[in-house]
Each structure stands twice: as C-alpha cells, then as structure tokens.
Amino acid sequence: MRSKQSRRIILVLILGAGIWVSLIGRLFFIQILHRGEYRQRSQDQHLCESTLKAQRGVIYDRDGAKLVCNLPVKSYYVDPTEVKNLQRIGANFARLLKRSSRHIIQSLDMESTFVWLIRMTEPKVSQLIDSWNIAGVFSLVEMKRFYPCRQLGCQVIGFTDVDNKGLEGLELQFDDVLRGRDGWAVMQRDAHGRRIPLTEYPREEPRDGYSLVVTIHAVYQTIAEQELARGIQKTSAKAGCVILMDPATGEILAMANEPQYDPNSPSTAHQECRRNRAITDIFEPGSTFKIVAAAAALEEGVQNPDDLIYCEEGSMELCRTTINDVDEFGWLTFEQVIEKSSNIGIIKVANQVGEEPFFDYARRFGFGNLTGISLPGEVKGLLASPKTWSRLSLASMAMGHEVAVTSLQLVCAYAAVANSGTLMKPLIVRYVLDTRGNVVQEFSPSRIRRVISPKTAATLKSFLVKVVERGTGKLAAIDGLCVAGKTGTAYKLREDGSGFSRDRFMASFCGFFPAESPRLVGLVVLDEPRMPHSGGQAATPIFRRIAERILALPKGPCADLCLMVSQPDAAEQMVVVPDLSGLDKPTALVLLQKRDLAAQPEGEGLRVCHQQPQAGVLVARGETILMVLGNLAKRTTKDSKVPHVIGLTLREAIRQLRQNGLAATFAGSGLVIRQTPKAGSRVGQETVCKLECEAPSGGPDLMADASSRHRGMSEP
C-alpha cells in the first residue's frame, strides 16, 4: 500500500519537474535565444510609424497677394473594430456622400483599423458629423489647398487632388517645389488603435514646400477677366482669352481665359473650362499675322513704306482662287496696305519676299516653336516647311491662313516688335521662396533672339500706329496715348473638316502702348463671336476698356502712365466728339454709344463721309451727331487759331486742340515742351499739330503740380 502511494508521489513529482523544466526551457527560448524577435513583435503591436505631412507652398502674385494657400480642415475615418452600429454609419454617410448605405458598408474593410470615410470637409459638414457622435468614427486634421480668389487665374494656377498633388497649371508644373518632403514619427498605439506621440521615440520633421511669386498682377488679371467676360457676353462668343505682357522682360501680367471654373471644386468643372486656351488652343490668326510679311519686306529691303502697290480694285485671281479685300482698293502705299489690312497688297509683298525668307522670319518670330513658358500643356502650333507648300501657300500664309498659332506665340511676336525687334522668353514665375521667405531661385528675363533690326521695328510700329489712328483698329484709340496694334479676323474650319465655315470666326486684336516706348502688350482673342464678328469691332473694344482701366490705376507696372492719360472729372458732363470719318455705320454707332452720344444717320452709303459736329469738338453728353453716309456731303474748311498748350499734360493739350478742330501727333511723354505751329497761328481745320513732350526732372509730383497750375488756362 505504502509502496503504491510512494510511486504515485514520485510520478507526480517527476511530472511537475518536467512541466517546470519545459516552462523554464520555453522561457529560455523566448527570453534568451529569441529575445530580439519577440521584442520586435511586441513593439509592432504597440508602436507604429506615422507620416508627418509637409505643408504645400503658397503662391503669391507679383505684389505679394495670396493666390493660393492652405487651410486646416477635418477628415473622417472609421475603425471597424470599434464600430457598434454599422447600419447607422451607412445611413448617415449615405445622405452626406449621396451613395447607398449598402455601398458604404461594403467599402469598410472589417479587418483593418483605418478606412477613410470623407476627406477635406467644409466647416458645416464637419460640425454635422461631430454632432452625430458615432462610435468608431474618428477625425483628424489635414491641410486643404484653398484658392481665396476662386476663379482668378484658375487655368494658370491649376489645382491639386485630395492628397495635395498638383494636377494642372502651376500646381502641376512646380509640384516638386511646392510639395516639400514629408517627415515621419514613431508613435505608441493604445488599446483602441489610437496613435499617441511620445517625445522619446525617433522622428524626422517634415520640410514644408517652397512658395512661388508669379509675374501675374492680380488687379490686371481681374480687369482682363472682367472685360473678357463682358465682351463675350456682348458678342455672344463661345470662348476667348486675353494676355497682357511686359515686352521688355517677357513677364506675363495677366492671362485670362473664358469660360472659367472654381479650383476649390474642380471636379464639378467641365474640361473645356479647365483648359488654358492661351497655350493649348491653336487657330488661324488672320490679319494679325501680316506683320511677318511686313517685317520681312522691310528687313530685306524689298519694300519701303511709301512704295505704291496696286491692289487690283479689291479682287484678284490666284491659282483659280479669288482673293478679295474688304474694300475696292486701288493704289496703296506699303504703309496703307497694313493700315487698311489689304489681303491683295500683303500677298504681293510676300511674293517679293519669297517662300524661304518668309518661312524663316515666321520661325524667327517664334511661330512653329514652343515659347518655353513654365506651364504644362503648351503646343507649338502649325507652320509647315516650304517643301510641302502648294502654289497658294505663300499667299494664304501672308494673310494669316494655312498657319496655326497659339495666343501666347502671337503676343510674343508683337512684343518683339514693341521691344525694338528682340524676342523675349515669356515668364510666368519671378521667384521661388523658402519657408522663411528668402529667395532661393530667381527667373530673370531671357532674350531668345533678335528678330528684326531696331530700325525695322520702329517702322513697323509706325505702321501699327496708323492702323489704330485711321485704319481697322480705330476702336482701340485712347485720347492722350499713342496706341499701336493690328486687327485679325479668320474663318474657322467646319467641324467635319470639309472646308471653312462662312459663319464661324476667330476675331483678334493685338496691340501695345505707348507706341514710342511700349510698356504693355495686349492680345484679345474671341472664339466664334456672333455680332459683331470682326476683330476690329469685337476684340478691339475689349482691348481699349482693359487699357483704360489699367491706366486709371494709381499703382502697378503702368502707374506712371496715368500722368499721360488724366482721367475725366466725374462731375464733367461734356465729351469730345470722336472722328467717325471712313467708319462703317455699325462701328460708328458703337463708338458714339461708348461716349454717350446719340446718332442721326443720313444717306444710303456704307461709310461715314461727313459728320456734324466735327471731331474734337466738346459737346454735352446725349448730344445728337449727324452722320452722312456715302458721298452726300463734303467737309467744310474753316480757319482755326492754334491754342497755347506748352506746359500742359498731353491729354489736356490734345483736348484743347480738338476743341479748336485741330488734330495732333506727339513724341515723348509727360508735359508739352514744344508745339508746331506756334500758338496764335491761323491754320485750316484738321491741321495736324506736332507736340514734343518730356517728363520734368522733378518726377511725377512735379508733373502733377505743373498739370494743376496749367489746368483751365485761357488761350493767349
């Protein structure tokens, strides 16, 4: 009996000892032999690495106004392991996200501890979600890209996706610069899976993105967008764009596109609205392209400004194709060919230049090549090699057909003329700033090439001045300022590619001011304007309104030009009668309406051949102007006394001369220092007085004082 009991005790002791030996062995295996492995497993369960998001850089306009910034907003996620009422989550977020409750529930990965529900919420939405107080739904703060000016420059600036990755515009082009570099931090995870930062754990701080200072002037951009939208509404155009550029530096001061969109919600915008038409859309420029043939002819010496060209009375057969002019022009000087935009005349000029030289000058102006602007999506247009031309190609290209350009290429070409023949690379970004505001990269003006000589450029500028003074660009004229420019109208191809449509047009005007020392080049392009449809009537008034509003600004790149073009007193009820001579009836009516004047048309002709009162006379607003159409009346002449205008601002001098029925040309800017004929002389009406102007050495303040001293001076 005792023997059996002893054996049992021994067996229990052996079994107990075996268990203890096994436990000690397992502990030795875990704690000693595989200590590192199990420690890592423990850390993986309680520690995690979290990404520390870098803030995206800000985008400023040239004067420091914020165009793009970041806002802290709430995003929401769900931890399925903490969810107590899955149906409630599905029902509540279904109404918010406009999805089915079933779809939301199925999207939740029940084996995960983190599933996004909604990101970057508006404050009202986040307040609503917080009020639900649903178990398992948590929030965290993210930085959302915010565009405070909304549509302003939207196609240029672009937008980002929900993860703040640039998708279009500058946001895409400079994504690596703006994005910065994310950091990381090791955090402790509690029993509910929430992450707790601890200072003793390793971390790497994020490096926030650098910021951009662009060349865009926010006020100029606003003016361009407003006037473009207004012009599109008046002409019932399909779309359009405006570019304003500093010809000396190549800086883009405004780049407006219509229609627009709000980059704060890009997903709701149609692709047509997001496209930057200034660099992605190509079109046949029409008569604005005539500067290529004109520049080539002047530079090569095959034509002089006064050379006569027979324009075939407005119609010419060429390769079984009839070429027409808008009027029955006979003999015109080379200058008048540009002034009156004669197709036949410019074809004859291009034929004298020749195919290869013409093509070479078109390339030198930048057509058929990328401009190199720092924006994504630019196309190079279409400019075929002479080897592929037909017998009609040179004539077509001289008129601005059989060639396709972007708006940016066209404005750069005119900027080259304004800049004494030197083509500049267009700039859209001025500086890159680090997080402390220090300049880390500067984009300086870059000269591409000399296209034409300064002498040729000066002659071409004088041609373009005549276009505005008495040619197709009269609606671009600004009192007291010498404006140069060229209109363009071109038929669009039919949508099926079977030829040109007879009722779909591209209307454009490209000009610059002041002509003697250009400070600003502007291009207006309208896609399919209905009424009116020509560049001279549809696009030119938009250019003028933009220029007038810019000149009225007390600050900006053209602020000093305000001294040349003084703004009329708001209380003034008098206006100057415009020169209607040679205009067609619709254009004359628009010009009178612009100045709050009524019209009384008489006669059956197509153009104004006489008006009463005469141009330059000061009349009350609402006054009726007699317009005689056709050849029903001749102008009367009458002697006038030349007033004393020395010491006046240019605007005031021109106004006094016009009150006396006299026209004026001028050189320089500032105050009048010399006049011809002399004050007090008796001359015939419509005599052109020459004024020489100079800015006083005392600067703008002295000029303003001088202007106020002479204002209201009576004639001697």
- The CATH architecture assignment of the largest domain turns out to be 3-Layer(aba) Sandwich
Largest sheet: 7 strands, mixed
Total individual domains: 4
Q: What share of the residues does DSSP label as strand, in percent?
A: 15-25%
Q: Helix fraction?
A: 25-40%
User: Which value, in Å, is the CA radius of gyration?
Assistant: 36 Å
**Principal-axis shape:** elongated
Q: Considering the protein shown, what is the CATH homologous superfamily of the largest domain? A: DD-peptidase/beta-lactamase superfamily
| Poorly predicted runs | 566-572, 631-637, 697-716
The termini sit apart by 154 Å
* CATH domain class of the largest domain: Alpha Beta
Number of DSSP helical runs: 22
Give an overview in words.
By secondary structure, the protein is an alpha+beta fold. The chain has 4 domains: 160 residues, Penicillin-binding protein 2a (Domain 2), CATH 3.90.1310.10; 334 residues, DD-peptidase/beta-lactamase superfamily (Beta-lactamase, 3-Layer(aba) Sandwich), CATH 3.40.710.10; 67 residues, 2-Layer Sandwich (Trypsin Inhibitor V, Chain A), CATH 3.30.10; 80 residues, Trypsin Inhibitor V, Chain A, CATH 3.30.10. It has 22 helices and 32 strands. A hairpin with a 6-residue loop joins β10 and β11. α12 crosses α14, α12 packs across α15 and α12 crosses α18. The longest helix is centred in the first third of the chain and has 32 residues. The C terminus is likely disordered.
